[in-house]
Known about the structure:
The complex is a heterodimer. By secondary structure, chain A is an all-alpha fold. The radius of gyration of chain A is 23 Å and the shape is elongated. Chain A has eight helices and no strands. Chain B is mostly helical. Chain B folds into two domains: 3-190, no CATH class; 197-234, no CATH class. Chain B is built from ten helices and no strands. In chain B, helix 1 (3-19) runs antiparallel to helix 2 and helix 6 runs antiparallel to helix 7. Chain B starts with a helix and ends with a helix. The interface between A and B is large, with 103 and 101 residues.
Amino acid sequence: MIWLALDTVWRLFLIQGSRNGRTIDGLGFFHVMAPLVRRLARGGQDRADAASRHAGYFNCNPLMASYIAGALTRMELDSAGSGEIDPHRVERVRDTMSAALTARGDYFVEMTLLLVSLTTGSIFAIYTWYAGPVVFLALYNLYNFRLRIGGYRTGLHLGEGTGRALVTRLLKEQRLLGATAAFSAGVLAALLMVRAWRYGGPRIAAAGAVLATAAYFARGRISPLKTAFLLLLAAGVFLALW
Amino acid sequence: MDPLLTASLLGGALSFEYRTSIRLYLSAPLVSGLITGLFLGSPAHGLAAGLLMQLLFIGSVRLRGRPEPDLPPAGVIASAAFVIVSRESGGTTPMNGLIMFWSLLLGLVAAAAGSIFYTQWERFASRPAGRGLDLARQGRTRASSALHIVLSLVHLTWGFLIVLVVLPPGLAAVRFLSTRLEVMSAGSMGSFPFLIPLVAAGALLKLLRDRTRLFWFGAGFLIATVFFVFGGGI
């Protein structure tokens, strides 16, 4: 069992390698489930049947995919002892869990975890230089590993019931981490403003406030890349002409 | 090792790290800038460029199905250009502001190129990935896994190639524009590293607009402002 778990978990870290427009991470997810398929059926039609249950469309946040892999492994191992497994049930569980966990997982990772790690890391980088990247990596990867390795274990333990348990837990942690992220974002904004004032004078601080306002209105209307291009050029032109 | 080859290998490794979802976030510009600086002999310069690149994109949320800027090689390119040209120029402060400006712009060009490439690649990869799933359904699990790994290696190749192609002409351009463009050589460019990070403040505020988060953002802003202004914490 331990070898199956290890063989599955390292593959979870490569799940998005073959991402594409049609099956999204379908091939990546099959790559994760391949050790289980090989364990369930030695070869021939049995293996083809077992593989077919896990070869299809898959779209889920990579940190949450571990829960689904664990839950499906539990289902397969349980039914391997008792006989037949309904392929539609496997598909239904995979689709339902990925749909539920994708939105929740994306929000948790993008809006909360990355935000709190990046803002805290940036504050430390401005203050103490090299500690910044270390703090960022430590904060982010604490959850990264917990969700991926712990997630597979939880899925394996709880089976189909994983989704509900996970969403409840995420909601709880999201509230605390969300407030922390917003607070540290406020600290970062203040730090940047005071630095601009102190080292560039009131004129640079005022120009910075204009730039921040422009960023506020541009985000959501035009892409982050175009926003970055335009604001970078605007800052360059302002300083060149000043 | 040759700095160009070092930066290209880093670009490849970090693209692979990000795109395959190993995602320890060594590829975040904040970290990749420091790593690039370490390999090229000036971690402080690398970190400075990486931090500014990170702040330009902080608070930009990746949306499924939308093209995203290709930040892993962009961070490496911006940091490498800044480290190399700063070292050559002797590294006076206004000069650094100017070099930083052109280096970040070079990084953004690479980020845009990567964004276009991945939009096309995800379309193209549908066919081989579909073939991989067909192999899986036939029970040929190892062949299917091998195809997945081969497709994953495209990210490594892309990261390597984009740095290798963009950096040499980019370095020449940054050198030329930093020394020859008279209108931008004024002392005011020294303020650039203090001005451009403020983009992050606006972007973060936009992201945290709901009532609860806005409250905490405001609390953090006020407390920190009082601390930094009266405590002299900077």
